[in-house]
Design goal:
The chain is mainly alpha-helical. Helices cover about 90% and strands about 0% of the residues. Helix 3 runs antiparallel to helix 4. The protein has two domains: about 30 residues; about 90 residues, no CATH class. The protein is built from five helices and no strands. About 10% of the residues are buried.
Length: about 130
């Protein structure tokens, strides 16, 4: 009987932990464009040691990108075909290229190199999960 109760408590604990992790992941998708941009700006400011002027420029750029991404996601939800996924992937790649060009104008060479390292680590982490 004790073993059954312990097992039941472990299952409930594991289930609760999994739900908490899921809700934490879901919170990022529930953020609006400005909140996402602010969160990313905080990370980049810490990683790249951005100046106040750079922070303003990067925040504007991140907000624009987040708004475009949100619009794309809304459009994709309405039109879920294989062609729309391919188009969205191409559009996202174009947005990434555009962002890279604009960031290169804002950041110093050292900061840009750090940003590229940061971005590579993020992509590796995403690919592992």
């Amino acid at each position: 009987m004790k073993k059954a109760i312990m097992f039941l408590l472990m299952v409930i604990s594991a289930s609760t932990f999994a739900q908490e992790r899921q809700s934490q992941r879901g919170n990022a998708s529930n953020m609006n464009a400005n909140e996402r941009a602010t969160m990313m700006l905080e990370r980049l400011t810490e990683q790249l040691e951005l100046t106040q002027i750079q922070q303003v420029k990067v925040k504007t750029l991140l907000t624009e990108q987040a708004e475009k991404r949100s619009a794309q996601m809304a459009e994709r939800r309405q039109n879920q075909t294989r062609a729309s996924r391919d188009e969205m992937r191409k559009s996202q790649e174009a947005m990434q290229q555009e962002m890279q060009v604009k960031l290169k104008e804002i950041l110093t060479e050292e900061q840009f190199a750090k940003w590229q390292e940061y971005r590579s680590r993020q992509q590796e982490r995403r690919n592992r999960n």
